[in-house]
Amino acid sequence: MKKLLLVAALMLPALVARAETEAARIAAASEEVIATATDNAVTDQSINCSDGLGVTRVAEVDTAGGGEYGEQYRPTPLLQDKEVVLTFDDGPHPVHTREILDALAAECTKATFFYVGRMLKNFPEIAKQVQAEGHTVGTHTYSHRNLGATSLGSAEQQIESTFNIADEVLPDGVAPFFRFPYLSDPKRVRDYLAKRNIAVFGIDVDSWDWRVRSPEMVIRNVLTGLDRKGKGIILFHDIQARTAAAMPTLLAELKKRGYKVVHIVPKSKLEAVAAVEPASPTPRKRARQRKAANH
Ligand SMILES: [Zn+2]
């Protein structure tokens, strides 16, 4: 509790409020997904791609030496005007991820999913389906930890254990793509990721889908943000029912307004380090992990 108070005192109040609300949301989502885990219905649909949103181009991202994308970082040439990248955090979710996959498939478009280790452990089949449908899968820590409020050793463990889980689960391996929970990205962890040849994806446009009440608000937030910025990496969460409900209309609206989807894929695969347990490592084990990461 003392530690929590100290963290709260040190951080911006808005970030703390967001972190606490989002942590509660993720805990609730984990309970919900366990309750719905037996629902494995797969819908079959015939898809006509000729008039869908589609994918305008595939951007191969070279992660050698890291790389940072999104408005909180230095500008990059990743996206041209009217180009967007669709990204979904916090899953996989056995119900809403499938709904979102159906919406993406109906428009023949592709997205990137940043997955949480403990969700990957609970729902590996959903993650496999995401990859099998041609989307990119990166990671988002093991337990959605705020890495701005943890030691570097603990951050490394959160990151590496989840990349290892994802790499084991996914037949084609995990992309060396990472997003910080709460977008809380201390320099020491960014430096570590760069050394590991893992790219960091921030955001340009926030759907605020974890906070608003309706699918209509999700759509409005994205379109307003895009109108203002003209392009960008869009943040959604595939554990949210309202996001899944918003997706068909939102994708159709993006096409109508002339936005073009860019699918990001890694140039090289992740170079996994030796097995890392999600539990707290001993100092000796941590030293071993650091040593392994240096190679
Ligand atoms: Zn998240």
UniProtKB/TrEMBL annotation:
| GO MF term set | hydrolase activity, acting on carbon-nitrogen (but not peptide) bonds; metal ion binding
Compositionally biased spans, kind Basic residues: 283-295
Question: Which one Pfam family would you cite for this protein?
Answer: Polysacc_deac_1
Q: Which InterPro entries match?
A: Glyco_hydro/deAcase_b/a-brl (IPR011330), NODB_dom (IPR002509), Polysacc_deacetylase_ArnD (IPR050248)
Q: Domain named NodB homology: which ranges?
A: 82-262
Q: Where does the signal peptide begin and end? A: 1-19
What's a GO biological-process term for it? carbohydrate metabolic process
Tell me the domain of life: Bacteria
Give the CC-aspect GO terms: membrane
Q: Where is this region: Disordered?
A: 276-295
Report keywords, A-Z. Hydrolase, Metal-binding, Signal
UniProt function note: Is involved in generating a small heat-stable compound (Nod), an acylated oligomer of N-acetylglucosamine, that stimulates mitosis in various plant protoplasts.
Please give the family membership noted in the entry: Belongs to the polysaccharide deacetylase family.
Q: Can you name this protein?
A: Chitooligosaccharide deacetylase
Q: Source species, please? A: Hyphomicrobium sulfonivorans
